[in-house]
Amino acid sequence: MNKNKNITKTNEIAENLNLSHLSTYVNLLKEVLPTIPSEFEDVFWWSGVKYGKDTFTIFSNNIKKVVGYTSEQIQVLPEGLKSLVLKEDIPLYNKAYDSLSPLRKTNFFEHIFRIKSKDNKILWLKEKVIQYKNQNGILFLKGSVIDITDYKEREEQLLKSVEDKQNKIFTRDNFLSVLSHDLRAPFSSILGFTEVLMSDPNLNENDRNEYLNFIHDSASNQLQLINYLLDWSNMQIGRLNPSPQRIQAQNIVFNCISNLTGNAIRKNIEIKSNVPESIYINADERLILQALTNLVSNAIKFSDEGKSVIISVDRFNQEMVEFVVSDEGVGIPESNQSKIFRFEKLFSTRGTKGEKGTGLGLSLVREIVERHGGQVWFYSKEGKGSEFHFTVPSAENTILLVENNKEEYFRFERIIKEQFPQFKVIGADNGFEAINYVLRQHPSVIISAHELPLMNGVQFIKSIIRGDKRFNTPVIALINSYDENVVKSYQEIGVKIILSKPVDPDKLTENISMCIN
């Protein structure tokens, strides 16, 4: 008797079940169950209860594949399969089975619940149950269970995605509402002062200059707001993505101070810096400079005359570098601290000399830092000052040595390690391997042989340039013998240092020093 015929037979017996059939039915189930392929998604089970002590519950063999327990192991649990149901799902589980009460007419139900499998995984199960009754008071249940965990996880991901999008739409609408006000409001004062200047020829020089300063400040503030807004919107749509490269942190800080020297002088504020020369970061120079400049500009804005602003940079851990901007300014009231970094709020206050802000600057700082894989946070106490921190990926001091001649490779490696112990030597014996490292890690210097397997040195550098339009890492090319055409090929792609083998150690050291200084 095949599987389908056996299942049909069990259904016929179930529909006319009586006490004399029970043992026959149980034996037939035991015969049918092993014939159900284990790859079936549904787990079939049968349960019979006679008023008294005689009971039976039998599961198809694939129950172990789903929950990790065999049919026999489940039967010895205090409440069978129900013993595996999560505690918080028990009330609904019981309610589903209550629908089969003799006082109700329902003979079928289906429900969804969660269990903890033998390996402690949380599974979502969907169970369908049919009830059979007869005049002898025998209650017989037949059911099937299917694992819908994957479906429920996808459903939850979809619901979360929908919720995230709804939140973004709400945030966007709120942001646009606030932004429209901030964009429109300053033009009222600009137009008002302009009308006075145009209509009153008797204004004295002092009043005229004061009105012009009001117009200039309002227009400058609006231009900054629009620039911040454009940068933020370009990031959101993918037009402004960071193009990281190896940058000396000290240069970023010095450029920032140079940009803000005028602001500091006007308030008699000293900008101090503590940045080791040896620290390099892997970041987009323009964007990180913009983020740092915004923080330092805020520190100046909220500091009283004669105070100091300190910029410090140090290693945060092996992968990240930390920038800290601290001031002795007015600090941020605790009630306002939750509003910092939020675009939708456009939170802004005036500086110690009435300087206006856009409300977008700190939010843009967070966007830039997070796009680099870093984090931004702050500490502030009202009346004591503020300290803003952010992290960006560090760039190791590395020299990439591309050379497939083992003897030459070890000779060059020994020279580099002896003369430049602060640099880590990374090796590659072909251009394809080296390209991936360059585009990911941006080494300090590339030293590459011309004669390489798979591609020569010129092709190797050209491939890097195609992958990174802003590539500017110094390259030292090593050629086996002087060839004017080869030299010209390197020069055309921007490689200025070309040495012929055998390379003089002093010459190599001299050129590496030129590249890293």
Please indicate the count of domains.
4
Provide the structure class.
alpha/beta
Number of strands: 17
Instruction: Count up the helices.
Output: 15
Proportion of strand residues: 15-25%
Rg, Cα atoms, Å = 37 Å
Provide a quick synopsis of the model.
The chain is of the alpha/beta class and 517 residues long. It has four domains: 3-147, 2-Layer Sandwich (Beta-Lactamase); 156-236, Signal transduction histidine kinase, dimerisation/phosphotransfer (DHp) domain (Helix Hairpins, Orthogonal Bundle), CATH 1.10.287; 245-393, 2-Layer Sandwich (Heat Shock Protein 90); 398-516, Response regulator (Rossmann fold), CATH 3.40.50.2300. Helix content is 44%, strand content 21%.
